[in-house]
Amino acid sequence: MNQRVTPPFAASIRWQSVNVVAQVVLQLTFISILARILVPADFGVMAIALVVVGFVEIFAQVGIGPALIQRLDLEDRHIRSAFSFSLVLGIVFFAAMYFSAPAIGTFFEDALLIDVLRWIALSFILSGIAIVPRSLLIRSMGFKKLFIASLIAMVLGNLCLGLGLAFAGYGIWSYVVALLAQNALLAILYWWQHPVRVNFTFDPATLKEMLGYGGRSTLFNVSNYAASKLDTLLVGHLSNTGTDSSGWTETGLYDRSAYLLGLPITILGKLGDSVLFSGLSSLQEDLVALRRVVQRAAAIVAWLIFPMSAVLVWFATDVAVLFLGGQYLLAGPVVQILFLGVAMRSLIKLGDAVVRALDSLVAATFIKLGFLMAIGGTAWYAMNNDLGILGVAWGVTVATAMQFIAMAVLVIHITQWTTPSALRSLRAGSLALLLTAAGCWGIATWSEHLFSEQSGTTWHLFRVALSSAWGLACMLFVAQKTNTLSIGKPLEWLSRRSGSHPLATTDPES
User: Fold this and answer.
1) What span, in angstroms and rounded, lies between the C-alpha atoms of 136 and 65?
2) Phi, then psi, of 399 in degrees rounded to 5
3) How many domains does the chain have?
4) Does residue 504 sit within a domain?
């Protein structure tokens, strides 16, 4: 039996933080270089392909991974059945995507999309192979091993093979090959670092045990993923009504804007989906300890994200040009609007980890479905009433605010938290936000008078670097004055344990 062990939070957070930051930096490097080689229309086609495949992949896994992580009493029969079932599903969904690709290509009026979808669909099989060892690594808090696997896969798959093909002139196919190579390498490395003895076994009773939680998790993930991608799908569909590539260019501009929004969310989301989800699952029968972790996590998120969101909003155009290139200058206003919701989305990600750990997925799914309908309605209205991608961005931001309120109410209820206590956890972040916003206003005004030519890489880099430095200074100042965090040891709160509490364990990887 694979018993649930107490989470070594401090070392796990350290390794997964390094892992996620490294992934974001490497991915951003890959995309930044690729954006200067490929045209925005290529990113438009790839955006739709990734949205479609990512949505279908949720069904291809049917919550098997989360079920392996969340279950308190995991036995070998669960592992064997999970592997067999996920592999068969991967093959089935690959075949389904292969034969349905022409219909999807016809819907978006693009023949290239058909071939791209068929090749990327191979990731269903690769995910089916990798899901068991990856989930067991997360369950056992093996984040050092996950970091090594991610680093090797991204460097070889993206930076070496992907960019090499891009410079060689293979266009969009360099992106496709990079994605498949990365997934294949990850599957190999997961099995190498966490070998599991499996066979093809289908035990209906065992699968029923896992698919109960897995089914609820799948519905939650589907609604969550669909809500995060529906705006891009509608922009891609409704903007491609002519015979030229202008629609795909608009889709590419919007997709890359959403990509920049997703960078800080990706960091927190991956931490929440791995360390916090696994750790909170082990504390699901101890609400006092769980609530303490959630409160501290909310304080950390607010302290990190609130002030930086001010920088991102104020200098959104500078960020877009720096990371994506001058051809994305027109994406600046879209990025600015979307960045208004980055702080709320970050806290929503924390809430997602809590509701998954406590299996409050039904209520959370209804919230996600409401968010999905709000996104779809506002995006459809904007694209059909000449409001364009700016109108879509405003609709997404308003819907995000509504989702944030609903998720906050749910988390406070299921953790038996109090609203005043929840609000107090955001004090340091809110104060840092106000100070950073005031400084951003001054930097923006001063820099416009300092530079005679307000353009070019130097101009954008100066503004972003100076405002980021100011934001960091505000964060450190607030942390010191409020005693919310321990400067120099920002993860110390995760390792504060009493000797009698079950969190008092030795970390084998520290």
Assistant:
1) 8
2) -65, -35
3) 1
4) no
CA–CA gap between residue 207 and residue 82 (Å, rounded): 7
Report pTM: 0.65
Please check whether residue 192 is in contact with residue 200, taking contact to mean a CB–CB distance below 8 angstroms: no
Token duo for residue 141: 């808090």
Mind spelling out the 3-state secondary structure of 432-457? HHHHHHHHHHHHHHHHHHHCCCCCHH
Residue pair 470/443 in contact (Cβ under 8 Å)? The answer is yes
Element (H, E) at 404: helix 388-414
Q: How far is CA 303 from CA 168, 396, 440, 505, in A?
A: 44, 24, 17, 28
Place of tokens 């929503």: 348
Spatial CA neighbour of 474 closest among 422, 430, 426, 417: 430
Q: What are the tokens at 59?
A: 């069904």
Which is nearest to 235 in space by CA: 246, 225, 219, 243? 246
- The per-residue pLDDT string of the chain (510 residues; one tens digit each, 9 = 90 and over) reads 455 444 455 566 667 667 777 777 888 788 878 878 887 778 778 878 887 887 777 766 667 777 787 777 777 788 888 888 888 888 998 999 999 999 988 887 778 889 999 999 999 899 888 888 988 888 877 778 888 998 999 999 988 999 999 999 888 899 999 999 999 999 999 999 888 777 777 677 777 777 777 777 777 877 877 777 777 777 776 665 544 445 556 666 676 666 666 666 656 555 555 566 766 777 777 788 888 888 888 888 888 888 888 888 888 777 777 766 666 666 667 777 888 888 888 888 888 888 888 888 889 989 999 998 998 888 888 878 878 777 888 888 899 999 999 999 999 999 888 888 888 888 888 999 999 988 888 887 777 666 555 556 677 777 788 888 888 898 888 888 776 554 334 334 334 433 333 333 333 332
Closest CA relative to residue 101, chosen from 173, 178, 48, 162? 48
Domain range for 230 is 2-495
Check: CB of residue 403 under 8 Å from CB of residue 365: no
List C-alpha distances in Å: 318 to 24, 369, 396, 506: 19, 34, 22, 45
104 lies in some domain: yes
Domain assignment of residue 446, yes or no: yes
Which residue's entry shows tokens 């499996």? 198
Phi, psi angle pair for 159, to nearest 5°: -70, -40
Q: Which two tokens stand for residue 432?
A: 């840092």
Query: Quick check: is 470 in a domain?
Result: yes
CA distance linking residue 210 with residue 70, whole number of Å:
10
- What Å distances lie between residue 402 and 345, 395, 424, CA to CA? 11, 11, 21
Amino acid (one-letter) located at 63: G
Token couple for 74: 């995991």
Q: How many CB atoms lie within 10 A of CB 454?
A: 12
Q: CB–CB of 93/57 below 8 Å?
A: yes
